[in-house]
Every structure is written in C-alpha cells, then in structure tokens.
Amino acid sequence: MDSKPDPEPDPVAFVIKETGSVSWPDYTTATAYFNTTNDCKWYYERVKEDATVSTVGFNESKAINSASAGDVPVNVKNIPTGNWAIAVYAKSQTDGTVQALKIVLNNRPATTFKISKASNTKDEWDDYNNVTVYFTASHDCKYYYQIIKSDAKSVSYSDSKAIYTAKAGDVVHIDVKDVPDGDGYAIAILARSTQDNAIKTCKITFSNRPAKSSTATRKAKTYSVTDNKVTGLENPLKFFPSKKYEFTVTEAGMSDEAPYVVGDERYAFLYWSISPSGKNPQAKKVIMSLKGIPDANTYKMYLFFQKYRFNGTDWVKKGSPESISTEFSSAGYTDEELKEYLEEAKENGTEIPGYENGSGSGDDADAELTATAAASEKDAGSKSKSAVSTADESPIGTMSALAALSLLAGGYIVVRKRKKEEQ
C-alpha cells in the first residue's frame, strides 16, 4: 500500500511578546527584549509610558531590522528624563501579519546629579570684562550663575534666581557680563535637578583673559544695526534701460578712528537683497534694470551688516548678519523720454543691450542679458543667470532683475543726464 506524504505543518500564528527584564547600562541607555514566533522585519519608536500602541502605527519603510524566531534585544539610547516606553512594530515574513507591542522601560536606575565645565571648551572673551563659558548637567535642571572670588569656599542657592533651564547632557553656554577688573575671579553655577530636586554647584575659574587696553580713556562706543544708514535713494529714479544708480551706505562705527578701547563696536556692510532672508545677495552698491521700468512704483530692499567688537587686540565678529530695510521708487518715463535717452546714448557711443539700433524689444533685451550673465558666471555665480530669466515679468520680477543686474553693472557705462535734467 502506497504511503501518503506527511501533511505540511500549519503556519505558526505570528505573535510578539515582551520577555526578560529591561537592563540599564547607564541612566540614558536601556536594553529591552521581545520574543517573536516567526522570522520578521521590525523597528521600534520611543514613546511616553502612557502612550497607546497599535498596528495602525506600523510604517513598513522603517522596518529595516531583521530577526529570526526567538528572543530579540532592543538597544535604546538617549532616553530623556521621565517615564518612557518603546513601541515595537514587527511584520511576519511568513504570512505578512503585523504585530505591535509596548515595552515599558521600568526599573530605571537613580543617577547622581552633577554639573561641570563642558569638556573640550575654553573661555571665550569678547573683551576684558565679558566672557562666555560652557557647562553640562547630568539631569534636566534650573540654574543661574553669579560672579565670585576664585578662592570662595561656599555659595548659597536661591530658587527665585534659578530662571534658566538646561537639558541633561547638553552643552550650555553662559554669557558672563561685567567681570570685575583684576585677577582671582570665577563664576559659580548653581542648579537644582528637576528629577530629584538635588542642588549642585560648579565653580569655573576664568582663564585666558585678554590684557586690558591701556588706552581705555573713554567709554566704549556701541552701535545697533539701525545706526547704519543708506542715502542716494530718497528721490524717485528713472530706470531707463541699463541705466544704473549708485547709493551710499554709511557703516556705523566704521569711521571711528584709533586708538580704540575694549568694547568699541562697528558694522561692516555685506550685501543687499530684495528678500528679507538675504536671498540672491548683491555686494555692489548699485541698482539698475536692463529693460527699464516705465511705470512709477515703490520697492523695498534689505541691507545686511556684520557686527564687530574690539577686544583690546582684534575686531571680533559678533553674532549673525543683521539687516535694515529701506525703500526706493521708480519715477517711470514716457515713450518720448525713452527715445531721447536712447538717442543720447547712441550719440555718446554707449551700447544699450537690446537697443543697439536705437530701438528694441523686451525679448531682445532678455536675450542679450542672458548671454552676458552666462559669460559672467565665473565672477557672479550661477544665481545671476537664474534670477535674470524672470526679469521684468512682474514688479517682483523687475526687482529680481535689479538685484541680479547689480553684479553686471560694472560692465556698462553710465549715461550722462542731459543738462536740462541736471538743472
């Protein structure tokens, strides 16, 4: 009698479940375990202990870990202070079933609260009396600082003064102002842990303090970005094709003369833009439009500056670029005025792109400008060409052209005004 083959075993129903206990190598790192009945693809996410976990949250693109049937370890790092769990999501490679499991990260060990000067950092002096120092804390905490004598043996903590917060493990900077003259000073950082209310202090003794300027016979001159001024754009301008207008930027503090004292400030002009974010920056102090702007309108421009402060030896950059805004207007012009302008340019031998024969079209102007921009990319950068491609299609397009063309302005001759315009 023929024997029948053994029937295929039924597939095991796919299940994942917590197994073992959570182990903690340190306060911010834990290892949890789950058991899977099938080979699977899986991933985990850190969640709050009271979070609800279900298969609805499964994201297959995140399931990049593979596991065979059996126990699987999950190593969890950078666990913040508080009560946390992990959500484990797994998909069976046998039948495609998805399972979800929450494992509470319990039995977290206690950790001793401590604060200390951040490693691999040094005091950064803005000048003789102002310095930045760095520290780290093992717990989330509230803190404040006070300047003390470096030989002080104790300080008193006050909750009402602890108005700043720090996260566990972060490198925190403190800008210490008005350090007294002379040696032997430090700062005390006083903090209370939000985890266990423990209070700790850390003393950072100052180092690398610069020499005090011997020329400090006056109070330092300080400025804000609004002290920078722009002139030359007050009156409406007739933006004939390729006619450029220069403007003047007065940089706050830049005309101050030596000797300087510690804390003196100044601003250096960097660039201007039609965008408040500084997009398509233009360094030249000139504006123009290749096609011209025949209509009267008003535009806004933004000028960006970098602040510097004197530390007794050098001018040190302070912060990120800051900006001011100003407006300028196009006066518009008539067809007759344009004709006069082009005739005068022709008489003077001045070439106006797109109007080589005394007349021209916007399309011709665009073609000439695009070619010029492409030839200038080594100097102006690729942004010039892309900005020009939208020139004069709208008021915003017009301004884009103004911005891009400032890079090209040096290649054109300024057409002199007629005497009657100057009178």
Give an account of the 3D structure.
With 423 residues, the protein is mostly beta strands. It is built from six helices and 23 strands. A hairpin with a 5-residue loop joins strand 7 (84-92) and strand 8. It starts with 15 loop residues before the first strand and ends with a helix.
Q: What descriptors fit this protein?
A:
423 residues; mainly beta; 4-stranded antiparallel beta sheet; 12% helix; flat
For the sheet with most strands, the description reads: 4 strands, antiparallel
Number of helices: 6
Assign the structural class, choosing from mainly alpha, mainly beta, alpha/beta, alpha+beta, or little secondary structure.
mainly beta
- Look at the structure and give the mean pLDDT: 81
| Percentage of residues assigned to helices | 10-25%
Query: What's the count of strands?
Result: 23
Strand content: 35-45%
C-alpha-based Rg, rounded: 34 Å
* SSE ordering: EEEEEEEEEEEEEEEEEEEEEEEHHHHHH
Give start-end ranges of low-pLDDT stretches: 360-401, 403-423
End-to-end distance, in Å?
Answer: 124 Å
Principal-axes geometry comes out as flat
Brief description of this entry?
This protein is mainly β and 423 residues long.
